[in-house]
Structures are given as C-alpha cells and as structure tokens.
Amino acid sequence: MTNETENLKVSAPGRICLFGEHQDYLGLPVIAAAVGLRISVSGKRRNDKVFILDMPDILEQDRIDLSEPVNYIKERDYFRSGLNVLLRMGIRINHGYNCRIRGNIPINAGTSSSSALTVAWIKFLLNAAKDNRAESPIDLTKLAHEAEVLEFKEPGGMMDHFMAAFGGIRFIDFNRIEDHLEIPAQMGKFILGDSCEPKDTTGMLARVKMGAIDAMKRLKMEEEGLCISNLHMEHLERYSKLISDDQLDLLEGNIVNRELTKDAKKLMMNEVVDNTGLGELLTRHHVQLRDKLRISTPKIDRMLDAAMNSGALGGKINGSGGGGCMFVYAPENTEEIAESIKREGGVPYIISIDDGARVESK
Q1: Which one of 16, 220, 229, 294 is separated from 101 by 20 to 30 angstroms, measured CA to CA?
Q2: Which helix (H) or strand (E) segment is 279 a member of?
Q3: Which numeric CATH code is attached to 190-351?
Q4: Model-level pTM greater than 0.85?
Q5: Are the C-beta atoms of residues 322 and 313 closer than 8 Å to each other?
Q6: What are phi and psi of 323, to 5 degrees?
Q7: Residue 202 and residue 75: Cα distance in Å, rounded?
Q8: How is domain 8-184 classified at the architecture level of CATH?
Q9: Are strands 97-103 and 30-45 parallel, antiparallel or unpaired?
Q10: Can 8-184 and 190-351 be said to share one CATH topology?
C-alpha cells in the first residue's frame, strides 16, 4: 500500500480489567477500561474481491480471495473467521481491499490485542459493506466474540470485545449485557507493564474457568439454586469435602473478587474518586489473583512491588495471567514509576482511558 491513498481507516483499543478478572465467563460483573493503545485497519478498495493484508509490525502478509471458499489456513485465523461470520449472515462484501494493519498493543500479553484486532476488522468490513451494524457497539461486541471465540471453540468471555467496541470505563453484568453502566469517574494515568513473559491464554483460562465451573456443578447437586452470584464462604465450609483444594481456592478467590468489584463500583460512582481507596482495592484484587487463582508470576509480582515502592497507589496483574502484563494506578510520579518497572525487566507504557472502536477516516 505504499503511496496509496487510504479511503477507510478503523481502529479499536486494548483494555485493562480493573475489577472482576476471570469473572465475566462465570456471569459475574466486571469493571474494565479501554486504554490508549490501539490497533488500526486501513484500506484502499480494489476492483476485485481480493484482500491483501499487510502487517508490518509483525512482518507478515496474507491474501484472501472472496471469489473462493474462505477456508482457515492457520490457528486463530481471525481475518478469515471475521469474514466467514459476516458472510454467513448474508452481509455482502462486494470488493476486496489493500489493507494495512498497525498497532501498539502488546501482543499475547493480556491487553486484548486479538480482540481489538477482531473488533477493528469487523467494523472495517461492516463499513466497507455499508452495513448499519458498524455503528452499533453491541453488534460489534457479539460479532467479534463469535469470530474470535465461538468460531474456534475457545474458552474466553466477551469482556475484551465489549471494551474494544464501547471504550471508556464500564461496569458490565454479563447476565444483562445491554444494561451495562458507563462509569463517569475521571481517572488519572495508569502505567501498564509488559513482563515479556509469554503466556498460555487458552491453558490458563481452561484451568481457572473449568475448575470453577466444575466445582459449582458439584455444589449445585447438594443445594438447589446455588450459583456463583449467591455463593458465600459458609457454603464452602459446608461443602469443602466435595471439591479439590484447588477448586476451593478458585471459589474463595471468586467470592472475594466479586465483592471487591461491588465495592469498586460504589467508589467509582462518586463525583470525586478516592484515588487511594481505589488503589487499595486494586491491590487486594491482585492478592486473590496471585494467591487463590494463582495466575501471577514472580516477575510480575516484582514489577508491582517496584511500582508501589516508587509511589503507585495500587495495581494488579492484567488478563488471563501466567505472564503478560500488570498495571498500576499512578496519577502522579508516572515517569519515576515507569522507570522502576523498566528496572525489573518490564516494558512500561503510560496510558489513559480511551474511546472504543471508531472510524478514523473515510
């Protein structure tokens, strides 16, 4: 696409999960925020039905010809799955495009780079097809979730796609996703730290998600009407012998994190946010993720400790865990705190809250 005029450009943000990590797929609420790290898809329309995809950030290219069946040629083939989801819905894509995909979201690091890519791609295709669902964040959320998760039978939830589509800070109850609440809090800076440790997202989700789900199935057999939203520590004391020690830890962590999310919602709905209180809640959330869900790593813990010692108000691991990123809330001393993360071997990004998927130019 060198020297070509772009006639459509769409972008979508990465996200951090403030509260409710590993809760969305259990039907529990989360508070998440879109951040100013984005992936863009830009393109110039062709006269045929071929998509040429140039990805200079990862030194890859791809070619998809819509005049032929769109068959998957690699694992998690999101460009083709996005096309297939829309084509099965009867959406007409009459032209191919020369596309360039760029981004600055850390890859495979818990900041939803794949979901941002999928949302941006779906929005690009809907705009190219002049389909009005391009302007509907909830439609973008559901279509991108289908293309990334359901199409490949993976265990992830919908939070990442939701935040990439909607942006801002949101309290989301996945039992009533359309009734999400926009959090009006004016937040200061965050510092994201990439540990550069590769993580097994699918394996981590399978262990934590399926462990909790299997444990709840066992408990429901003993008490009708019991579910993760009304589960309390007294239930675990009563039924502890029915589940493994690992499952007991998972459920204990989920109970505490569920209540922390409620506390955080109350705090963040105030006109003036208690920054210190917010930081303390973030750190308490991390303790559960580290000790009960066991998704943190020694390096991420060192990065968090270094940031806290340099003045951060609180923070936690971000994403499915086992590597990837952490973040801290740091309205002040941002440069010093970022440097402390760097000294521990992390790559810091100073970030702010950002908008959802948007058309940058037509």
Answers
A1: 16
A2: helix 275-291
A3: 3.30.70.890
A4: yes
A5: no
A6: 145, -160
A7: 12
A8: 2-Layer Sandwich (3.30)
A9: antiparallel
A10: no
Find, among 112, 163, 127, 152, the residue nearest to 41 by Cα: 127
Q: Which residues, in sequence order, are bridge partners of residue 172?
A: 30
CA 245 from centroid of its chain's CA atoms: 28
Non-local (6+) Cβ contacts of 294 within 8 A are 249
Q: Which residues, listed in sequence order, are joined to residue 61 by a DSSP beta bridge?
A: 54
Domain boundaries, the chain: 8-184, 190-351
Show Cβ contacts of residue 125 under 8 Å, excluding neighbours closer than 6 positions: 82, 83, 86, 91, 93
Q: What is the DSSP string of 190-254?
A: EEEEE------HHHHHHHHHHHHHHHHHHHHTTSTT--TTT--HHHHHHHGGGS-HHHHHHHHHH
Place of tokens 């097809």: 129
- Write the single-letter amino acid at 361: S
Q: Please give the backbone phi and psi of residue 351, each rounded to the nearest 5 degrees, phi first.
A: -130, 155
Q: How far is CA 329 from CA 28, 107, 158, 196, 290, in A?
A: 23, 22, 24, 20, 18
